[in-house]
Design a protein that fits this description.
With 450 residues, this protein is an alpha/beta fold. The protein folds into 3 domains: 76 residues, no CATH class; 134 residues, Rossmann fold (3-Layer(aba) Sandwich); 155 residues, Rossmann fold, CATH 3.40.50.720. Helix content is 46%, strand content 16%. The strands form 2 sheets. Strands 9-8-7-6-10-11-12 form a 7-stranded mixed sheet, sandwiched between helices. A 5-stranded mixed sheet has the order 1-2-4-3-5. The protein starts with a helix and ends with a helix. It binds glutamic acid. The site of glutamic acid (GLU) has 11 residues, from strand 3 and helix 14. Glutamic acid binds next to strand 3 and helix 14.
Amino acid sequence: MLKKKEKEAEFVYKKVPVSPDEIDIFKPTKERVLVKSNSFEMAKNQIDIVAEKMGLNENITKYLKKVERSLIVSIPIKMDDGNLEIFEGYRVHHSTVRGPGKGGLRFAPNVNLNEIKALATWMTWKCSLLNLPLGGAKGGICVDPTKLSKGELERLTRRYTAEIINIIGPDIDIPAPDINTNAQIMAWIMDTYSMNKGRAVPGVVTGKPIEIGGSVGRESATGMGLFYILEALCKKLNLNLKSSRVVIQGFGNVGGTIADILYEKGVKIIAISDIKGGLHAKEGLNVKELLKWRNKFRFLKEFNKNNYKFISNEDLLTLDCDILIPAAIENQITHSNANNLNCKIILEGANGPTTPEADEILNEKGVIIVPDILANGGGVCVSYFEYIQDIHSYFWTLDRINQELKKILVTTFDNVYYLSKEKNVSLRIAAYMIAISRLAKAIELRGIFP
Ligand code: GLU
């Protein structure tokens, strides 16, 4: 007790940590850093490409290239050692034209406003493509959460929530988990918001623990969705998934879940990586063993098995395989490595893993890319199910969740696939065409206020 008081007496103001917003954790080369800091430019560039193909009205194009609002907040936290640290946080609404903003919250040392704006924009397309009555939003805090104690993490989350409280809510903007955030963090957001309102408001976030209004199947939803989409694609291409060799970049919630699902179906995962690098084995990895290792020791680097080779993330991307699943962060496949890729299909588990330049190179090479807004849409889809379950206070079974998820994803995949054939464009362009035209129609119908 005395110790705590002494600590408080020593409470000193430390300099605000410099945000390392130019750091790309997967490959900090100069070139990548440059692309990384321009995620929003990349998002706007994608709008231009599709707008031209669609002959989209110039005013609508102009409108879509702006975010509705961005909030930057300072988050002062009393650290366990008594010092004060001030972190920077963001919440961005790209569009709420089709409904409340929806999108994840990420905690990472490379988070910056540009990146969050891009991610919010991509959420708008994703929700519109899936035809969910939601808009696009995203949030983040520039922090390395592995350096925080549980108490510090809780204080950070609660203070961030208090700072953005006026722009979130079940009918304004509903955060959810993303990189380095989870159900516990959503519980702290829900509690902070609810305490402020004087009543329980479960609908303020999705991805909550089931005990406080979360949904079954939400945690595995993005990985499950990737699988449904991959299955649908294989059917169209007459490809035998079981005899395919898969490489996965990222071993978090998304990479880990899809690896687990595929492994259980008997598909060979020949390489998988985390932020420090990956493991490669031509005859296939034992994913169950690796998941156990990850849950206990976190990184794959220290995993010792004679026939598993440790490789860099850069080398992992260029491995000879049938299906490459980038399931980490944005800007991993760029013009500098696209030519060296050796896969037939790219299934984008991450948001924005491929730059437009790389996209062009790969399309020319004949690589089929299932774009992020379609491939990883399972997460936000089950978030939407959670949101409606909260509103109705009536909860669904896992069977119902997975059935409805599959229905939405497979229908959307079919629509994208047929449009891509009809217009002779890539799956990405077709997906964007559907998403943007749906949003453009909504903007037109609502008109511009005043
Ligand atoms: N963070 C996830 C995504 O990027 C889920 C967002 C949500 O459920 O709102 O799609």
